[in-house]
Amino acid sequence: MTGAASDSPELQKHVRNKLRNKAIANRMKDDKDELKLVIVRDMWLTGFDVPSMHTMYIDKPMKGHGLMQAIARVNRKFKNKQGGLVVDYLGIAPMLKEAISDYTNSSGRGDVATQIEEALNVMLEKYEIVQECFHGFDYSKYLNENASKRDRFSLLESGVDFIFSKKEEDQKDFLKHATELSKAFSLCSAQEEARKYRAEINYFLAIKAGINKINGTGERGGPTEADYDYAIRQIISESLVADDVTEVFTMAGLDRPDISVLSDKFLEDVRNMEHKNLALETLRKLLNDEIKLISRQNLIKSRKFSEMLLATIKRYQNRTIEAAQVINELIEIAKKMKAEKDQGSNLGLSWDEIAFYDALAENESAVRELGDTTLKTMAQELVIMLRKSTSVDWNIRESVRAKIKISVKKLLRKYKYPPDQHERATQIVLEQTELICKGWNNQKT
Question: 53 with 73: CB under 8 angstroms?
Fold first, then answer.
């Protein structure tokens, strides 16, 4: 807010100087900032680039260069955003047509109408392709305005399961064309011809959002609950607006586990799910997430479980085993994960110590000749030594890393590890050292 010295005290406290105005501008440029709406007068029309800005409300007469500059503020591509929205309170269409004529030298026609028509044609083409992806699956009840919320949600669940029943390349094709359909629809959604497909496109994009969320893929690492809800609200007709936010466990028909996704009760619930393809993908996503957590600290376990998961999924993708059998195998992997999580307490080792124990025990001659007790002692000494040596600048100071590696090698030589003198065994311990030191450094910073 701008102001003058003569303003009353009530207004003065809201007046922003140049520095504070710049801070607001920087916040507006950050698409992750909670600030979403700013009211300006004769500001930010030139040299203010915010590709994520989506909507501009105009209540001031503008024309020519100024009008084109204003529209350019929101008419930028950004991630899934293909164009901006201008809300006109004054009726500036004639001035816009004139400005387009001036800047395109097209005798007053411009290319706006042509672009919208092209977007409509693309939308219709992509609509037919995506619709064909559901050949053999009846989702018509979802489009009925009188359908219950339960029926509509059931068709979302069944639709996700239907797409997951297809080959992986067909799933990718569906996601690709659904994304292109969404982009085209966003540009022509105001056209009467496009509005006829609104509810059906809503269904397709809701299925896409559900699949991406379960896969943990998509933009920015996968849709959040807010993304899912927002995407539906953007293209859904008023009679179909969903009030509740849907998330992975609800989509899969499961209760969110209280403590661990690997609990016996949760795994049994997954086993008994009606939609096996949806159950499989949900479980695969959860196991992937668990492996990612393990990979931040335990080199051996993360590799082991990654290989097990990959082997099972490959057999399924090659259609050598059915979804129900895959689910059973994935549940067994989950149970092994849980059992190995408890291994540390059984051995009397911390989670950090068990990570080194696993790395040391990768060498068969060490297990055979040094024995379990010595390997446990080595793991404990390695953690104590690293705790004393690791500094917060581990990631940036090569000298620190070199010194720690020398200390680790000395400790290994002290215990004559590995007995077979295999260099790979030492390398694995050093890789585990780097992994765990990075983790500690991240905790400190």
Answer: yes
